[in-house]
Amino acid sequence: MTDTSSLLLQAERQCQRHGVRFTPIRRRVLEMIAAASGGLKAYELLDRLAAEHAAARPPTVYRALEFLIDQGLVHRIESLNAFVACPCPEHAHGFQLLICRECGRVEELHLDDVNAQLDRRARDLGFRVDRQTIELLGRCEACLLTTASA
């Protein structure tokens, strides 16, 4: 797992390369998401941001999230309606998420062969994939060990 300061530095560099602004609000939202042990929901982010910035409103958070997703810095966990920091935003291909149902931990995988097979099959069927979300729900090793020892 990438530490928050490294992730923020990487995000700054990526935004500079893409010629987009990494505003203080965008940075803070990414920092909050990166510091969380699992995914954060938009309203959890809003509550945390509002504690620091009285003017923070839902559009503030949603615009920041949209930007961070567009830049590949954050992923939306569809099944939880939550957001998680991408540990390797330079990886431009699809990804898979392992999500622990007990502790909420999220790990990102990059199985490019899986993505290629799905893209190829979709093309064979005349389908163009705009976005791919693969989420694997289960229990992480730590939770499995805790359950086994109980």
From TrEMBL:
* One annotated GO biological process: regulation of secondary metabolite biosynthetic process
Q: Which SUPFAM superfamilies match?
A: Winged helix' DNA-binding domain (SSF46785)
**What are the UniProt keywords, alphabetically?**
Cytoplasm, DNA-binding, Iron, Metal-binding, Repressor, Transcription, Transcription regulation, Zinc
Cellular component terms per the entry's GO annotation: cytosol
Binding sites annotated in the UniProt record for Zn(2+): C100, C103, C140, C143
Annotated signal sequence is: none
Localization in the cell? Cytoplasm
Note on cofactor: Binds 1 zinc ion per subunit.
What cofactor is this protein dependent on? Zn(2+)
Q: Which Pfam families match?
A: FUR (PF01475)
What molecular function terms (GO) are annotated for this protein? DNA-binding transcription factor activity; transcription cis-regulatory region binding; zinc ion binding
Q: What is its main location?
A: cytoplasm
Q: Does the keyword Protein biosynthesis apply?
A: no
State if Iron is listed as a keyword: yes
Report quaternary structure and partners.
Answer: Homodimer.
Q: Which family does it belong to?
A: Belongs to the Fur family.
Q: Which PANTHER family match?
A: ZINC UPTAKE REGULATION PROTEIN (PTHR33202:SF6)
Could you tell me what this protein is called?
Answer: Ferric uptake regulation protein
Q: Which organism is it from?
A: Billgrantia gudaonensis
**Which gene produces this protein?**
fur
